[in-house]
Design a protein that fits this description.
This protein is about 40% helix and about 20% strand. It has helices at about 1-20, 35-50, 70-85, 100-125, 135-145, 150-155, 175-185, 200-215, 220-250, 270-280, 290-300, 415-425, 430, and strands at about 25-30, 55-60, 85-90, 130, 165, 250, 255-260, 305-310, 315-320, 325, 340-345, 350-355, 360-365, 380-385, 395-400, 405, 415, 435-440, 440-445, 450, 465-470. The strands form five sheets. A five-stranded parallel beta sheet has the order 3-2-1-4-5, sandwiched between helices. It has a five-stranded antiparallel beta sheet with strand order 6-7-10-9-8. Strands 11-15-18-19-20 form a five-stranded antiparallel beta sheet, with no helix packed on it. Helix 5 packs across helix 9 (about 220-250). The chain is elongated.
């Protein structure tokens, strides 16, 4: 009996560790609450410790929400780890108010616990943080998210490995298997009284909805929900890989995206690309709903030349022409008010203007060997200058200044550089740091935007200075 229960739980955990790439000698921190799941996980990992060469430590956070019961859990965990010889780090949470709504309290408690486990893992040098979620938890999560209208990513529910150092090696093990394992070992654990509270949606799904559905409509539904989660995770991983590749192709300096080709992406890839972008910029997707993602998708596809929508946490999604970016409250224009720059462009070699995020590669050649642009009116990232006309002053790349004017080729009179920026749909966030190339104070070139009637190459030109501009990574 003991051996059968051990084979089910310990064998499943060992297989999960192998799938997660946990190698011999790895250090694992267990999130130990004292409940049946985390106690079983701890006992099983201790059984595997010698065979796999694992280093095991445990961490317990006393949320101090349930009063004496929380203190009871802490005392139980301390005694258990002392008996088993497991290093234990305990911390008591501050600032959790049990009077707030159960949903908000639950979310806040998860955030505090996540932060605590991360800090302890760093402290003990753990490469993995193991949590006791199991197969029934996964089924309940899928059903809960289905009820909320989740897509493929939400239906994928919990991953066996990730994000980050998290591992959930019991996702293939049922609650019944875990209880059988603990019963066979005569191992004690503590019960959380809130698990029986009908005020918590998950508890109602566990105790009422899922049993009713399995009993009256779909026997074995829990197992099928877990299978759906696995399929959705595989699908989501595939789409996420495609979206990540497309996202990289859209990146421009300053943390924005060039979304001019966004409409050409597959409909399934579009929202995933947005989620990935939000996650890396905001740190997480907490409080971001499908409605937010769809609103941003519509903003990118159908928004005007300068539209935005507000997001939770003080963030704003903003589209300006073909550029899309996320702006955090208090950081409306990063770089705004920063000191200007003025950098001389060498006549030979590469000059990097870090403040602008541009590099300029120059070469000087006889006019007979110079490769001229396809069009005299080209606004490419390559410009040709009569070297003799700029010999004294040279080329200088500086920041844009209010009131700047230039004399564009083919036009009479001058034009405001600001108007050129607007016509060429350069986002406001990039204008302040965009390189304005001058000759003796006169604006000669806005790379990729406009060429001025200054130091042009003519039939009389003997030596040509060729300059190619390119954006560099932030």
């Amino acid at each position: 009996m003991v051996r059968d229960a051990e084979n089910i739980v310990v064998g499943a955990i060992e297989a999960a560790l192998a799938r997660a790439g946990v190698r011999r000698g790895a250090s694992i921190l267990i999130g130990l609450s004292g409940g049946a799941d985390s106690v079983a996980l701890t006992c099983a990992l201790l059984e595997l410790r010698e065979r796999l060469g694992l280093r095991i430590a445990a961490a317990h956070l006393n949320h101090r929400i349930r009063g004496d019961e929380s203190d009871r859990d802490e005392a139980f965990v301390r005694a258990m780890c002392a008996r088993l010889g497991v290093e234990l780090i305990v911390e008591r949470a501050e600032g959790l108010d049990a009077s707030i709504s159960s949903a908000n309290l639950e979310e806040r408690a998860r955030e505090v616990r996540r932060d605590f486990l991360g800090r302890v893992a760093d402290r003990v040098g753990a490469g993995y943080v193991a949590l006791g979620h199991h197969r029934d938890d996964q089924a309940e999560t899928v059903l809960m998210r289905l009820m909320r209208g989740a897509g493929a990513a939400g239906m994928a529910a919990m991953a066996e490995h990730g994000p980050g150092r998290l591992i959930r090696p019991m996702l293939s093990v049922s609650r019944a298997d875990i209880r059988g394992y603990l019963d066979a070992r005569a191992t004690a654990f503590v019960e959380d009284s809130t698990n029986s509270s009908r005020d918590i949606l998950r508890n109602r799904i566990r105790a009422e909805l899922l049993p009713m559905l399995e009993r009256e409509y779909a026997p074995g539904l829990g197992g099928r929900l877990v299978e759906v989660a696995a399929e959705m995770r595989s699908l989501d991983d595939l789409v996420a890989a495609i979206a990540a590749r497309e996202l990289d192709a859209m990146r421009v300096r300053g943390g924005a995206l060039d979304v001019s080709g966004f409409s050409g992406l597959n409909r399934a890839v579009q929202p995933v690309a947005i989620r990935l972008f939000l996650s890396e910029r905001m740190g997480s997707l907490r409080r971001i709903s499908r409605a937010h993602i769809e609103a941003m998708r519509q903003l990118i596809l159908e928004g005007g030349p300068s539209d935005s929508i507000d997001l939770p946490g003080g963030w704003r999604a903003e589209r300006e022409y073909n550029f899309f970016q996320l702006i955090e409250a208090g950081a409306e224009r990063k770089g705004s008010g920063a000191a200007g720059f003025s950098v001389a462009i060498a006549a030979e070699g590469i000059t990097v203007v870090e403040e602008a995020g541009f590099a300029f590669e120059a070469s000087t050649n006889p006019a007979t060997h110079a490769s001229m642009p396809d069009s005299l009116f080209s606004v490419s990232l390559v410009a040709m200058f009569d070297a003799a006309k700029i010999a004294d002053a040279g080329l200088v790349a500086r920041n844009f200044m209010k009131g700047d004017r230039m004399h564009p080729m083919g036009m009479r009179g001058t034009r405001k550089v600001h108007d050129v920026f607007v016509d060429r749909k350069l986002p406001r966030a990039r204008r302040e740091r965009f390189p304005v190339v001058t000759v003796g104070g006169e604006i000669a070139w806005l790379p990729g935007l406009a060429r001025a009637d200054c130091a042009l190459v003519t039939k009389a030109t003997e030596t040509v200075l060729r300059v190619e501009a390119s954006e560099i990574a932030a």
